[in-house]
Design brief:
By secondary structure, the chain is an alpha+beta fold. Helix content is 18%, strand content 25%. The protein has two domains: 139 residues, Sandwich (Immunoglobulin-like); 315 residues, 4-Layer Sandwich (Purple Acid Phosphatase, chain A, domain 2). The chain has 13 helices and 32 strands.
Length: 641
C-alpha cells in the first residue's frame, strides 16, 4: 500500500465528514412555483429546472435513494464534472412526467465531496406513507435517469404485506451483477444491503482469483505492483484502498455497473457496512490482513493490534459520501432511522454510528446493527489460521467479549424484545449460528483427498470452527442475546425473531439457539431454539466451494457414494456437523426475498446460473415459510423459474 504521508496528505478533513456528505445550501418547496423567501427567483428556478435532454453521462453513477421514512427520503447522485456552477436541482412526483411535482428543490455540491450530491428530506407532509414516488436530478439542462422509491408505512398503520430483497458481498472483480438484473424485476418494496458493497482489495488471490472484471487504482499506471504498493520508480501501485481517493474510486467503479444502478433506480436501500468497506476481518480501526499495516509484534513475538486511524476514517468518509443514508447528531435516537454523527470527533470509531431501526407499521421492527466498529479483536490471535478452520481457544467463550459493544447491544435487545410489532427482523452482518466442520474433513480439504463419511453432530470439543470472525468467536454475547429473547418470550410473549444475514457467500436456513453446546435432538426445531436464520448468497463474491481451501489447495474432495442435492461434500459434511442448519448451498450466487404478512414470513432464495457472463437465467433454490407464533421453518415445494 501507499505510505502514511500519502494518506495524511489526501485525507480531506475528517471532522464533520458525515454532515458535509450532505448537500449544502438546500432549498425545498412544494409544487412547481417557488414561494417567496426562498432566496431563488422564478427566473432562476426556470433555468435550473429546464430539461434540454436526459444525459446519463452527466450522472455516471446514476441515481439512488435510501433510508425511507413515512414522510421522508434521502436522494443521491453524482455529477461527472462541475461546469459553470455547483447547484443541482431535484424534483419528486407521483409519475414519470414530472408535470405536477410534489416537491422541488436545489442544493450545492463540490469537489470536496467528489461531486456527490445527497439531500435528506425529513418530515415533509407532501410525502405520504407507503406511497410510490419518482425523482430525478437536473444539472445545466441535463436530466438524470428517473428513480423510484417508496416511503415507509406510518409506525402505527395496520400493514397487510411488506416485501423486500436483501443482498450482500458484491465483489466487482469476481463476476457480473447478473443477480441484480433479476432483483430489479422483483415486486419488492425495498432492498436491504447487509454489507461488502465494495471490496478494498483489487487482486487478493485467496478470494479474488476469478478476476472476471479486473480493476486498478488510478495511481497504478506504471511499474509492477508488489505487496508494499510501491514499484522501483516509487509509484504507488497499491492492491488495497488506502486513501479517501482510493475508496471513492471503488465506489465510482462499482456504481458504474448498469445492473446495480437499475436496482438503485427502482428501490430505496436500507444499508449497513461489513468489513470490506474498510478491510477484511476488521475491528475498530484495525485491519489484521492489511499490507503495510500488519499487526506489530510484542516482546514474545506475538502479533498485537496496530490501528490505522487515517485509513479507517477515509473509509468512513467515502462510505458516507457514496451511500444514500441520512444523518442525525449522536444526541438523536437511533430510532430516527438515520446514521448518526458528532462534529469534531477525531476517533473514527466514535465519529459515526450506523446502527438504527425502521418500523414498518404494526408488522415489522427491523434493526440494523454494526458488527465492526465496536467488536473486540479476534479471540485466538490475528493470524489467518487463528481465525479460519481453527479448534478455537478458551477466549471464544469468555464473558465480556463483544461484537456489538455494550451501548449497541443494550439498544438492540431493548428494541427487539420491547417491540409490539408482529415480526422482529435483525439485519445482521455475520453468521449468527454455530458453524463447525469435522477435523477429518478439514484435513481432506487441505490435502485434496477423499473426504470421510460424516459421523453426526460434533461435540463441544470436536471439530473446527469454520470462521471465528463470525459469532462463533463471541459466544457469551451470542448466548446473552438468545437468552434475552427466550426470557422476553416467557415473560411477555415476544415472538417471531428472524435473523437475516450476508457475509458468508452462502445460502443457509437454520435455527438460532440459546446454547449450541447443548446436544440436539433429531427433530427440528431444537428445543432451545429462539428464532430462525436466513442467510443470502453473495451477489458475486467467491462462495465457499470457489474459495475451497482459501486459495491454498485443490477443490473440495468428493464424498463416496450419493451426496445431498447439489452433490458437494462440503454441504453434506456441514449439515451433518450442524444439525440446526436445515439447508445450505455454497455453490452459486444470488439474493433472498422476504415477504411478511401478519400470519407468516416467506423467504425465497434465488440464484443465477453463472456470474461469468453479463446475462444468466435465474432459478428458485428454495422457498421457506415461518408461521407467525412458531419457531419453525417449513419448506415449500415450488417449481424452478
Amino acid at each position: 500500500m501507499g505510505n502514511r504521508d500519502r494518506r495524511d496528505r489526501h485525507n480531506i478533513s475528517r471532522r464533520d465528514f458525515i454532515k458535509y456528505s450532505l448537500a449544502t445550501s438546500v432549498v425545498v418547496w412544494a409544487g412547481s412555483q417557488v414561494p417567496r423567501g426562498m432566496g431563488l427567483s422564478e427566473a432562476e428556478a426556470q433555468t435550473l429546472f429546464t430539461v434540454k435532454q436526459v444525459d446519463p453521462a452527466v450522472f455516471p453513477q446514476s441515481v439512488a435513494s435510501g433510508d425511507p421514512q413515512k414522510n421522508g427520503i434521502v436522494l443521491w447522485t453524482r455529477v461527472a464534472a462541475l461546469g459553470s456552477g455547483t447547484r443541482v436541482a431535484y424534483e419528486i412526483a407521483t409519475n414519470t412526467t414530472f408535470s405536477s411535482p410534489v416537491l422541488r428543490g436545489t442544493a450545492d455540491t463540490s469537489a470536496a465531496k467528489d461531486n456527490t450530491f445527497k439531500v435528506q428530506l425529513s418530515n415533509r407532509s407532501e410525502l405520504k406513507p407507503f406511497t410510490t414516488y419518482y425523482y430525478r436530478f437536473i444539472y445545466n439542462g441535463n436530466a438524470s435517469r428517473t428513480g423510484r422509491f417508496k416511503t415507509l408505512p406510518a409506525p402505527s398503520a395496520s400493514v397487510d404485506r411488506v416485501r423486500f430483497g436483501y443482498i450482500s458481498c458484491q465483489d466487482y472483480t469476481n463476476g457480473f451483477y447478473t443477480a441484480l438484473s433479476h432483483l430489479a424485476k422483483e415486486p419488492v418494496d425495498f432492498v436491504v444491503h447487509l454489507g461488502d458493497y465494495v471490496y478494498e482489495t483489487t487482486e487478493e488471490g485467496s478470494f479474488q482469483g476469478g478476476q472476471v472484471r479486473p480493476i486498478q487504482f488510478p495511481s497504478d499506471k506504471n511499474g509492477t505492483s508488489d505487496r508494499s504498493g510501491n514499484d522501483a520508480t516509487g509509484v504507488d501501485n497499491a492492491l488495497e484502498a488506502d486513501t479517501v481517493e482510493d475508496y471513492r474510486f471503488l465506489y465510482k467503479t462499482y456504481k458504474s455497473d448498469r445492473n446495480l444502478q437499475r436496482v438503485h433506480e427502482l428501490f430505496a436501500f436500507l444499508t449497513i457496512w461489513d468489513d470490506h468497506e474498510f478491510a477484511n476481518d476488521c475491528y475498530g480501526a484495525n485491519a489484521p490482513d492489511a499490507d503495510g499495516t500488519a499487526p506489530s509484534e510484542n516482546q514474545e513475538g506475538e502479533p498485537v493490534p496496530n490501528p490505522d486511524v487515517p485509513r479507517r476514517s477515509a473509509a468512513n468518509q467515502a462510505w458516507a459520501e457514496y451511500t444514500p443514508v441520512g444523518t442525525s447528531p449522536l444526541s438523536a435516537s437511533p430510532d430516527s432511522g438515520r446514521v448518526r454523527y458528532e462534529a469534531g470527533i477525531e476517533d473514527p470509531v466514535e465519529e459515526i454510528q450506523i446502527y438504527r431501526s425502521f418500523a414498518f407499521g404494526n408488522l415489522i421492527e427491523l434493526v440494523l446493527t454494526d458488527e465492526r466498529l465496536y467488536r473486540d479483536e479476534p479471540p485466538c490471535g490475528l493470524d489467518t489460521l487463528d481465525r479460519l478452520l481453527t479448534p478455537g481457544c478458551p477466549e471464544i467463550k469468555a464473558e465480556g467479549r463483544t461484537m456489538l459493544g455494550t451501548t449497541q447491544r443494550e439498544y438492540f435487545i431493548e428494541k427487539m424484545t420491547g417491540s409490539n410489532r408482529t415480526w422482529k427482523i435483525w439485519g445482521n452482518e455475520t453468521m449468527f449460528m454455530q458453524l463447525k466442520i469435522a477435523n477429518s474433513y478439514a484435513d481432506a480439504l487441505r490435502n485434496g483427498t477423499v473426504a470421510p463419511e460424516p459421523e453426526g453432530q460434533l461435540g463441544t470439543d470436536d471439530g473446527l470452527y469454520f470462521n471465528l470472525d463470525q459469532w462463533d468467536g463471541y459466544q457469551a454475547e451470542r448466548n446473552e442475546i438468545a437468552r434475552a429473547f427466550k426470557q422476553a418470550n416467557e415473560a411477555k410473549g415476544v415472538q417471531n425473531f428472524v435473523v437475516i444475514t450476508g457475509d458468508l457467500h452462502t445460502f443457509i436456513a437454520g435455527y438460532a439457539r440459546e446454547n449450541y453446546d447443548q446436544p440436539s435432538v433429531p427433530e427440528l426445531p431444537p428445543p432451545d431454539a429462539v428464532g430462525v436464520c436466513f442467510m443470502g448468497g453473495s451477489v458475486t463474491s467467491s462462495n465457499i466451494i470457489e474459495i475451497a481451501t482459501f486459495g491454498q489447495g485443490p477443490t473440495p474432495p468428493a464424498v463416496p457414494g450419493p451426496g445431498p442435492e447439489g452433490g458437494d461434500a462440503f454441504t453434506l459434511q456441514t449439515q451433518t456437523a450442524n444439525p440446526h442448519i436445515v439447508y445450505l448451498d455454497s455453490t452459486t450466487h444470488g439474493y433472498n426475498l422476504i415477504e411478511v404478512t401478519p400470519t407468516k414470513l416467506t423467504c425465497t432464495m434465488k440464484a443465477v446460473d453463472t456470474i461469468k457472463t453479463p446475462q444468466s437465467p435465474v432459478k428458485t433454490l428454495k422457498v421457506f415459510e415461518v408461521p407467525a407464533g412458531e419457531i419453525r421453518i417449513n419448506e415449500v415445494i415450488t417449481p424452478t423459474s
